[in-house]
Design a protein that fits this description.
By secondary structure, the protein is mostly helical. About 70% of the residues lie in helices and about 5% in strands.
Length: about 140
C-alpha cells in the first residue's frame, strides 16, 4: 500500500472511520444472528473492513469487473438490495452522510467527507459490488 494511502487511512480512523466500521460490524452481527440475514451479513462484514481502511481500494460492479453476471448482479440482486435498504442500508447511509457533513466543515476533512459519501452510496446498494485494490498494477 502506498505511503499516502497509509497516512490517509490513519487519519481516516481518527476522523470517524473506526466508528463507522463498528456500525457496519454491528449490522453484520445483527444480520448474522437471524438465519434469514446471513447473505447480507457476509457483505456487511466485507464492507466493514473496507470502511476501516478505504484508501487504496475502490468499489466496482462485480459483473463489470469479472465480465460475467451472477445471482447478485441480476434481478435477485435488486431484490436483495431492496431488502438490505429496508433492514440496514438507510441508517448506515444516514450515519455516513452525517459524518460527511461534519467533516466537510473543515478544509482538511473534505477528502474524508468525500469517502463517507461514497460509503453512503455503497450502504444503500451493496449487493453486486466488490472491493478491489485501487492500483491496478501487479504487486510484483
Amino acid at each position: 500500500m502506498p505511503l499516502l494511502s497509509v497516512i490517509l487511512n490513519v487519519l481516516w480512523l481518527l476522523t470517524g472511520g473506526l466508528w463507522m466500521a463498528v456500525g457496519w460490524l454491528i449490522a453484520a452481527v445483527l444480520l448474522a444472528v437471524t438465519i434469514i440475514g446471513l447473505p447480507w451479513a457476509r457483505a456487511a462484514f466485507s464492507i466493514a473492513g473496507y470502511t476501516l481502511l478505504p484508501f487504496g481500494y475502490r468499489v466496482v460492479r462485480r459483473d463489470a469487473h469479472l465480465g460475467q453476471s451472477d445471482l447478485g448482479t441480476g434481478p435477485l440482486g435488486v431484490l436483495g438490495n431492496l431488502i438490505w435498504l429496508v433492514l440496514a442500508g438507510w441508517w448506515l447511509a444516514l450515519a455516513h452522510v452525517v459524518e460527511a457533513v461534519l467533516l466537510a466543515i473543515t478544509i482538511i476533512g473534505i477528502p474524508f467527507a468525500w469517502a463517507h459519501l461514497k460509503l453512503a452510496g455503497l450502504a444503500l446498494w451493496p449487493i453486486g459490488r466488490m472491493i478491489v485494490p485501487a492500483d491496478p498494477r501487479p504487486l510484483m
